[in-house]
Write a structure and sequence with these properties.
seven-stranded antiparallel β-sheet; alpha+beta; Beta-lactamase
Amino acid sequence: MPLAGIVRRIAALFVVAALVAGCSTTSETLNVAPQAAPEKYAAIVVDASNGRTLFQAYSTAPRYPASLTKMMTLYLLFEAMQQGRVSKTTMIPVSDHAASQPPSKLGLRRGEQIETEAAIRALATKSANDVAVAVGEYLGGSEEGFARQMTAKARQLGMTATTFRNASGLPDPEQRTTARDMAVLGMALRKHFSQHYYYFSATDFTFRGKRVRGHNDLLGRVNGVDGIKTGYIRASGFNIVTSVNADGRKLVVVVMGGDSARKRNDHVEELIVRYLPQASGGSLASSLFTPAPAAPAAAMPVDVVTSQPQTLAAPMPDGTPVPMGVSAPVPVAEMR
């Protein structure tokens, strides 16, 4: 073997050894990154009753949200409904740009319209890209204008490291988020729009007489799971934000960068089993994340994995970002 190859292998062994040493408190009982590329994986488990972080791994490292983006698209749609600007029966027009989006989609055609309630179900369950763009154009005047609204709302919610560039989550090198920010958004949806939260629990819906199945296989599989959203593009791996409400305890679990939906789901289930007993009882946290302790504390490095309870400030310092290893859009194999 050439000398350069030997050096690379030795360096890789040192990296693995360092990670094992740094994660020894967790690795014996928890599969930290199940079949996930290190530059894609991230996770966080939050006690939704008090905002405490029970587990985190790379939770402030930049990641691609994929279709988790549609959580914000729906947040702004729910907000428009709350403000009376849109009703469930409002008809949303479909432009050529919206109709031309790649799958996953409903297959809407230019000039058609979709009722707002059907649009909500298509976003929450089917993760339809054509519908996401139609909603964005309707609320923001253009998809670009809507993306600016999405980013502004993210800042208002305390999502300090998220930038949106489109309404769907289709590949864009500048559309970034973190597992921590996705947990904030998941909690905000439930807290601010509890009357609409049931949409995220649906496993299918009927559109124009046809049954449309969803992508969230944890619904009905794991006790207490009642939403919320999956996502996938090649650059992100398999992502999910999961809400759990069981035995008076509530969690929000985010896993990003899985190699497959099954492996991602297995990891989420493992996190639920491990951390649900540690969650406190009570209603949803009065604030999305509880304030930082009075005594100043160093920011948690993003390359540290911990299962010790932590209290996230809002906002939490970003720390040193982990390189993504992807600097440009990649072809879409499947968008969920």
